[in-house]
Design goal:
The chain is an alpha+beta fold and about 475 residues long. The protein contains twelve helices and twelve strands. Strands 1, 2, 3, 4, 5, 6, 7 and 10 form an eight-stranded mixed beta sheet that branches. Strands 8-9 form a two-stranded antiparallel sheet.
């Protein structure tokens, strides 16, 4: 018998196989009814040879002075995005709708937490995504480190994968979503798709990017604002925009020559593995019906999938440009047509009045443009949420251009709008300002990957502002 405890912050694990009755990650321990062969994927997540019977799910994070009810500290097998979840019964959607489905929570079977008298049997090819909740009633009645506003409800999460045999050395964890558990391997990564460009300064903090991406990001809320409630605080950022501001610099720095970045070889190797793992998870979610069309909460997923697809050379992932998945970058970018001109000059126009308003004109036809949605299309440069989109869209567009992935992406308006937005870099200011690293990357490398959209015809409309309603 062997008891094994390991944390995600450790160095990337080898694939040694052990016999154990429990494994631990991110503060969560899964205990089995008997010894099983266990080991770790290349990113440090655990696998176990099954089928298995779990007799306890515990954690060392919750303060023992608080009593946790069934319905907190939830766990879900092979989760998919349906708008419902089984991780925390307190979660509500943006407009107050119930989001909890007790049938999904396998750590609440028979209205009890799992124990030896109420075990959980897991079949082969299963992923158990397990969460740790914060205890929070109000700001006076909460765990010491729990957010004072009660968001998010979750503190930590980890994945246990049940396989039919030990994973090969160097295997990535299969996607946690759905029942297909395809194993990719680090030895098969196509490193030649990375550009290995001359490094640009100032570089982002690579060690921070490694730390921010080392745990699973259980992105099961379809890019909805509910993610601010359900994204585990110790695993991932709380909004799609904040997630994108981690992913985007990671994709760009991974396209620099690692041999010319002093002292970062190990960190860059870890970061590459972790971003590919994120791409595998996101593709798995998309394959089970996820969409990311929730305004600024939906950004970044397609870019990470494209990145991983190119590294893995996986035909299905490389076809992402033809998937039916709704990606916000594609839904919000378009070329102005007579349709937009007609709508914005009619009583059908329902723009977001929090910004100045400017209808489209015939002179704008053919201009690459952004809009939160069709009804809210607004030519004014301060259209609500445009600032969020401008910065992360341009970062992801540059990463894809550098990797020659424009055809894989398959939505030209996204790339042309990014060029238009960056035709005057002063347009992106304040909270949503471009980082010095990104601005330096754009200035050094965008022109090296033609074509660059010629915005001269539309320069009078970049920027252009309307009037308050």
């Amino acid at each position: 018998m062997r008891h094994i405890a390991i944390f995600a912050s450790m160095a990337l694990a080898a694939s040694a196989t052990f016999s154990a009755t429990n494994v631990m990650q991110n503060g969560i321990t899964w205990t089995f009814d008997k010894d099983h062969s266990v080991g770790q994927f290349i990113n440090g997540d655990w696998w176990v040879v099954g089928p298995i019977k779990i007799i306890a799910i515990t954690n060392d994070l919750n303060d023992p002075k608080f009593e946790f009810e069934v319905g907190l500290n939830g766990a879900v097998v092979n989760p998919v995005s349906t708008g419902k979840q089984g991780f925390d019964k307190r979660a509500k959607a943006y407009h107050g709708q119930e989001m909890y489905n007790a049938e999904l929570n396998v750590n609440a079977r028979n209205d009890k937490f799992i124990d030896k008298d109420n075990p959980l049997e897991l079949a082969l090819q299963s992923s158990l995504l397990t969460a740790v909740s914060w205890y929070f009633v109000d700001k006076e009645n909460r765990e010491e480190k729990a957010p004072v506003n009660g968001k998010p409800l979750l503190r930590s999460a980890a994945v246990l994968t049940v396989l039919d045999k030990p994973a090969p050395e160097g295997a990535f964890r299969p996607a946690f979503a759905g029942t297909e558990k395809k194993l990719y391997n680090v030895k098969d990564l196509k490193h030649d798709v990375l550009a290995k460009l001359e490094p640009i300064t100032p570089l982002p903090n690579i060690a921070d990017l490694v730390k921010q991406t080392e745990r699973v990001w259980p992105d099961t809320m379809n890019g909805d604002s509910a993610m601010e409630t359900l994204n585990p605080l110790e695993n991932m950022p709380l909004t799609g925009f904040a997630m994108s501001r981690v992913w985007a610099p990671a994709l760009l720095v991974l396209n620099l020559d690692p041999g010319k970045i002093d002292g970062q070889k190990d960190n860059l190797e870890k970061l590459l593995i972790q971003i590919v793992q994120h791409g595998i998870d996101l593709a798995g979610l998309a394959n089970t019906g996820s969409h990311w069309d929730g305004h600024w909460h939906g950004t970044g997923r397609k870019s990470v999938i494209v990145f991983a697809a190119q590294l893995l050379g996986d035909p299905q992932m490389l076809d992402v440009g033809n998937w039916k998945t709704r990606f916000i970058e594609d839904m919000q970018t378009f070329y102005v047509s007579e349709k937009e001109v007609a709508i914005t000059n009619s009583d059908k126009w329902k723009p977001d009045a929090r910004a100045r308003l400017l209808p489209y004109s015939k002179e704008m036809i053919g201009m690459p443009e952004w809009a939160a949605n069709e009804a809210a299309a607004n030519a004014s440069w301060d259209a609500f949420h445009r600032g969020n989109a401008n910065i992360v869209f341009t970062e992801f567009a540059l990463a894809a251009q550098i990797m020659g992935a424009k055809k894989v992406w398959n939505h030209d308006a996204f790339f042309d709008y990014a060029d238009r937005a960056m035709s005057n870099s002063d347009l992106v200011v304040g909270e949503f300002a471009a980082t010095p690293f990104f601005k330096a990357m754009w200035e050094a490398y965008r022109a090296k990957y033609p074509p660059v959209f010629d915005n001269s015809k539309f320069k009078d409309f970049t920027p252009i502002f309307g009037e308050k309603k």
